[in-house]
Amino acid sequence: MTKYDEISVKKLYDDFMQLDQVKMYFPDSYPKGRVCDREFMFNVVNTLHPDVITRIREHALEVRYIVNEDV
Question: Which end of the chain has less neighbouring CB within 10 Å, N or C?
Answer without folding.
Answer: C
